[in-house]
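Ex. 9. Protein: LysR family transcriptional regulator.
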Amino acid sequence: MHLHKLMYQFKVLVEYETFTAASEYLCISQPTLTQNIKRLEQALDTPLLVRNGKVLTKTVFGESLYKHACLLDKSYSQALDELEHIKNHQRKTLMIECGYGWSHGQLMILLQDYIKQHPDIKIVINNSNSVDSQSKLIKGQCDIALGAIPSSDSRDKAIHYLPIYKTRFSLFCSSEHPFAQLTQVSNQQLEHSDWIVLKHSGEGKEHKDPLLFPFKPNSVRFEVHSVTNAISLLSVSQCVMALPEPLHDEAIRKGLVELKTVFQCPVYDTGIMYTDDALLLAHKKEMIESIMKYQNKLGVNIWYPPHDPTG
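Predicted structure tokens for LysR family transcriptional regulator:
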């Protein structure tokens, strides 16, 4: 840092051409500036300037150092500007990654009070699966992730995990699908079905979700990135689709039928994930704390139970 300071003073001296003008710009005395230039030459063990009366001439070494001093000062300024931009951006924005079950369910409830308390905060909500959300947390691309909590042996040490409630996926088809009239659908029948897959933005094509029925990739008839479009498409096709429990009521209202299957999607914990970085800024920390406080209302014991399609 000391050498950088001396190089900056050397740059200013070259540009202002005299010790008097340069010292006035730097708000230091002329003797101090003269001494600092000598210190720089001693540190580099090479002469940088030649004085001919009041005229200063750069040596070959001085010419080279001046070019690099300009680049260094520019890089230094750009670094500070970029950091300031990032800080301002983070102060005003809350980035949330979550699955469709959250964005079409409890997240809107959680945001009600927060939005009123923080009218100046821009909230960005992106849909992604739990694995991608955790990756974005580690990379600093989001502040909070809401989704499936991985098992303890699959958790990242840099991420805090807080289960909120238990849930699972259910399988649906249209009322015109042959499966809709069956008392039970076998695994073999599911394996030979066409599927609609509700994808998240940026999700890999071969992503296999252990929480869903293990259908083969070539069974996928449609890949859709919108809940509304997926439900509408399912209602007019001969396909099967898995939906998270928070979307159950919406699916039923749209005339879809929950399948009665031998296969049962596993129950899993879903909740909030975040890193220590999210605790550094007040508006992010407050969102995390509001979710924790609301946990008693949502309840880790409150889960979306398996619906009885026969009822």
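Check your answer against this statement. Residues 194 and 218 are 9 Å apart (CA to CA).
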